Amino acid sequence: MSRRKILFISKGVESPSTRYRALQYAALFEAGGWSFQHIEDNRSFVTRKRLLSEAHHADVVVILRRTYSYPFFRLLRFAAKYLVFDYDDAVFQKDQGQRSDSRERSFTRSVSAADQVWAGNNYLAARARPFARKILVLPTSLDTDKYDLCVDKERNYLDLVWIGSSSTKEHLKSVLPALESAASVIPALRLKIIADFTLQSDKLTIVPIRWSEKREAQELAAAHVGIAPLPDNLFTRGKCALKVIQYMAAGLPVISSPTGVNAEIVEHGVNGFLAAGEQEWLAAIQRLVADDALRNSMGKAGRKRCFDNFSLQSTFRKMIASLENGLAD
Q1: In what helix (H) or strand (E) does residue 19 lie, and over which residues does it extend?
Q2: For residues 282 and 296, what is the distance between their CA atoms, to the nearest angstrom?
Q3: pLDDT of amino acid 168
Q4: Domain spanning 145-309: which CATH class is it, in words?
Q5: How far is residue 129's CA from residue 219's CA, in Å, rounded to a whole number?
Q6: Which residues have a Cβ under 8 Å from the Cβ of 290 and sit 6 or more positions away?
Q7: Is the sign of the CA dihedral 156, 158, 164, 169 positive or negative?
Q8: Are 284 and 229 in contact (CB under 8 A)?
Q9: Is residue 192 helix, strand or coil?
Q10: pLDDT tens digits for 228-284?
């Protein structure tokens, strides 16, 4: 029996959605008897020609977040025997949550034509449901074993940690005044920023760490508390809480804004705290700084929640079952 072939198409290997919603499943697909392929669509004529050829020879084609103009999408739809549209962001809106007629048209075209739709959370799924033939909520997940590390933590400091990129820099800046207020009463408080940028502060010690895929899990595990500030708008409600899941996988308690899926994953008082304003952020930080046992218990609860709901293996099982059912129809 010949191996089935699955082709993932994305904008590039550096994109988090490519790493977490495609590439990390390659070995599992291969072990399961599939042939895995990924193509980075750089929009060139040569790449587009190759893409259509490979799509024609694949059993399943998965488009990651990309929406296309009608002429090329029609060619891709014709070439693909079975088409999946996967998205983990509010691709139907502008980045600040403003309405975009062109993005909505492209999104509707994609989900309407796809044989199956994979949405990163329930909010995103709800937007596709009126148009989709078959829809699966497929959360962004992690290889939890990668984060199961025994790392010495700083004993002279209490390290908050934030992981992300310059695209969400403003989210971190929004909570900086609260962190600076906390530092004024907790001299040992520091902020680790694992990203491609840093911030400046005269009131809070900031430790910049250049993001590295090889070291991100170790750097997270070495911190004490993970933070996830997130403004509430129509775009951010589509976020899939990757940093929250990473913190929990690393065994950290989490302080998060009560926005979107973050508020579903963070159980207030169990695996972290939800904080809506400066005073709530300050209170949450103070409570976690003062109580080692609480940090440990919340970290364990978070890791269990991550393992039960956001592990690579559990999500892959859902993915394969949905594909097998769809191909059998």
Answers
A1: helix 16-21
A2: 19
A3: 92
A4: alpha beta
A5: 39
A6: none
A7: negative
A8: no
A9: strand
A10: 999 998 889 999 999 999 999 999 999 999 999 999 999 999 999 999 999 999 999
Q: From the CA atom positions of the chain, what is the Rg in Å?
A: 21
Task: State in Å, rounded, how far the first CA of the chain is from the last one.
Answer: 19
The residues with which 254 forms a beta bridge, in sequence order, are 226, 272
Number of helices (H) and strands (E), helices first, in the chain? 13, 12
**How many CA atoms, within 13 angstroms, populate the side-chain half-sphere of residue 84?**
28
> Alpha-carbon torsion 237, 39, 196, 208, what sign?
positive
- Cβ 84 vs Cβ 117: under 8 Å: yes
Task: Give 199-237 pLDDT, tens digit per residue.
Answer: 999 999 999 999 998 999 999 999 999 999 999 988 899
For residue 152, the 8-state DSSP code is P
What's the rounded Cα separation, in Å, for the pair 200 and 188?
Answer: 17
Phi, psi at 58, each rounded to 5°: -90, 150
* Structure tokens given for 64: 């990651």
Given this model, what pLDDT does residue 1 score? 56
Q: What is the dihedral of CA 216, 96, 126, 114, to 10 degrees?
A: -80
Q: Do domains 4-141+311-328 and 145-309 have the same CATH topology?
A: yes
Distance, in Å, from the CA atom of 174 to the CA atom of 260, rounded to the nearest integer, reads 17
The one-character DSSP state at 149 is -
Domains of the chain, by residue range, sit at 4-141+311-328, 145-309
Contact (Cβ atoms closer than 8 angstroms) between residue 260 and residue 230: yes
> What are the beta bridge partners of residue 128?
none
- In angstroms, rounded to a whole number, what is the distance separating the alpha carbons of residues 101 and 156? 53
Architecture of domain 4-141+311-328: 3-Layer(aba) Sandwich (3.40)
